[in-house]
Amino acid sequence: MSHRESLFVISDLHLGGDTGFQICTARGRRRLAAFIRGIPSQLSTGQHAHLVLAGDIVDFLAEQPFAAFTPEDSVATAKLARIMDHGDTADVWQALRELVSAGHSLTLLLGNHDLELSLPGPRRLLHQRIGHRGVEFLYDNQAFVRGPVLIEHGNRYDDWNVVPHDALRAVRSALTRREAPPPMRTVAGSELVVGVMNGLKRQYAFIDLLKPENEAAIPLLAVLDPGAMFKLQQLVRMARQAARTRTPRDESGAPEERELISGEAEQTEELLLREAQELLGASDDEIGAREHLKSWWELYRAGTFEDRREQLRRLRKALRIYVREQHETFAVAEESPRYLKPAEALARRGFRVVVFGHTHLAKRVPMLGGEARYLNTGTWAELMRIPEEVLSDSAAGDSVLSEFVEALADNQLGPWRTLVPTFARIDLEGETLVSADVFLFEEDGSVRPVGSRI
Questions:
Q1: pLDDT tens-digit map of 372-417
Q2: What Cα–Cα distance (Å) separates residue 298 from each residue in 293, 295, 301, 312, 360?
Q3: CA dihedral in degrees (287, 290, 296, 297; nearest 10)?
Q4: Three-state SS letters, 149-170
Q5: Torsional class of 358: left (φ above 0), alpha (ψ -120 to 50), beta (otherwise)
Q6: Reduced to 3 states, what is the DSSP secondary structure of residue 141?
Q7: Which of 372, 413, 414, 451 is deepest in the core (most CB within 10 A)?
Q8: Number of structural domains in the chain
Q9: What is the pLDDT of residues 69-119, one digit of tens each?
Q10: pLDDT-derived band of residue 298, with 50, 70 and 90 as boundaries?
Q11: CA 111 to CA 152: how far, in whole Å?
Q12: Rounded Cα distance, 316 and 288, in Å
C-alpha cells in the first residue's frame, strides 16, 4: 500500500516587530495558530500531514536594534526569543509543537528576512520550542523536494534579495568555533528595509503593505512626502548596486555562478523615480533641501478648494499610471516573468508542481501547456491595495482618494488593510501527484480554493 501524504505549504509569516510595527498582526497570528491546529482535521483517515514553512518565517529586519543582518549569535538568539514571546506569538510555536508531537512532520526553509535562523543559537532555540522529532530545517540554499514537487522561498530570483550563501556558511562555521564571524555582504533588499523603509514606516505604515510595492509606493510617497524623495534616490542607488551583483544566466534562466543567485537585470526603480520626480515637479537640488519641501498633506489642508482638487488630481494621476500593474498583481493566474520563467525551467526538469513564496501574492498558473503548475503561497502578513475607484474613471474616485489619503496620513489603516491567509496543499500517493492548489483559510476555520483574484 502506497504512502498517502498531504503537503501544506505556508510562507512569509513575518512574525516579529513591536506592536504597531508588525505586518503580521494579532489577528493574523491567531488565524495562523488556528490553521496549524486545524491541519489534522483536513486529512482523511491514514493521511500524514507535512507542513512546510517556506521562508520569511520570522522577520529579523523588524526587530530592534535594526540591522540588515545580525551575525552575533547571542544577539540574534535574543531577537528570536523576543519574537517568539511577543504577545500571542508564543501560541504559534506551541501549535507547531503540538503538530509534530501528534506525529506529523515539519520542514522549515530559509527566506531573506530570517537569515539569522540558520545561526547556531537561533537553531537551538527553534528546536527547544518546537522539538526535534519530525522537524527538518533546510538553510543552506536547498529546496524542499518530494517526488514531483519542488518548494523554495523564491528570493533567489529577485535582484534585491540575493543571499550570499557561501558567506553565510562561513559565518556559521566561525560561530560554531566561537570565532569572530567574517564580514558578509548584506542583502540589498535588507539594506533597503533597514536604511529606508523602517524609517518611513513610522510615519507611513502602509509602505510595506501596499501592493504592487514599488509601482504604487514610489509615486505615492513622492506626492505625500516630497522629503522622502531623498530616501527614494538612495533606493535607486541600492538598485544599481544590486545590479552589479547580477550574474550571467544560462538559457534556462538559472545562474551560472551559484554563489550570487539573482534574476534578470531591470531598471524599473530608476524609471519609477524619474516619473515620480516629474509628478513632484522638483529638481535634485530642491529634493536635497528636504526642509524646504512641503508635504502633499500640508498643501492639501492649507489650500483652497481648488488647491485641494489640484493636489488630488496630481495624486490620482500618479496612481493611475499603474492601474494595469495592480490588475496583474492581484490576478491569481498571472505571475511576473521574474518568477514564472525559472519555475518553468524547473518544470522542464520534471517537476510537476513548483511552489514559491516571497512575493506575498497567492498564484496558481499552469505551465508547459498544463503539464505542470506553479503555485505561490502568498502571505500571512496583511496587504493593502489602491482602491479600484481611484484607478478607474469613476466619478467617485476623488472622494474615495481623499478618504484614502486621510487614512494614510493619519496611519488609520484598519479599513484598508486586508488579511488574506493563503496556503498551498499538495496531495501525494507515494510519488504520484494527486492534486495541488492554493487555498484560503477563513476566520471560521473553513477552507476554500483561492478565486481568480485575491
A1: 999 999 999 988 887 888 777 777 887 888 888 778 777 777 778 8
A2: 10, 5, 5, 13, 33
A3: 170
A4: EEECCCHHHCHHHCCCHHHHHH
A5: left
A6: coil
A7: 372
A8: 1
A9: 999 999 999 999 999 998 889 999 999 999 999 999 999 999 999 999 999
A10: low
A11: 9
A12: 25
Q: Decide if pLDDT at 173 tops 80.
A: yes
Pairing relationship of beta strands 149-151 and 353-356 according to DSSP bridges: parallel
C-alpha span between 424 and 421 (Å, rounded): 11
Domain annotation covers residue 454: no
* Cell numbers representing residue 361 in the block: 501574492
What range defines the domain where residue 237 resides? 4-449
Query: Is the pLDDT score of 440 beyond 80?
Result: yes
**CA within 13 Å, CB half, 5:** 20
How far apart, in whole angstroms, are the C-alpha atoms of residue 290 and residue 292? 5
All cell numbers assigned to 444: 471560521
Q: Is residue 373 part of a domain?
A: yes
Spatial separation of the C-alpha atoms in residues 117 and 94, rounded to whole Å: 18
pTM of the model: 0.86
Per-residue pLDDT at 276: 54
The 10 Å CB-count burial string (b at 16+, else e) for 81-90 is: eebbebeebe
Note whether 381 and 360 are within 8 A (CB).
yes
* Any domain includes 364: yes
| Helical residues (DSSP H) of 330-370, grouped into ranges | 337-348
Closest CA to 252 of 342, 161, 368: 342
**Does residue 319 belong to any structural domain of this protein?**
yes
Give the phi and the psi of residue 62 in degrees, each rounded to 5: -95, 0
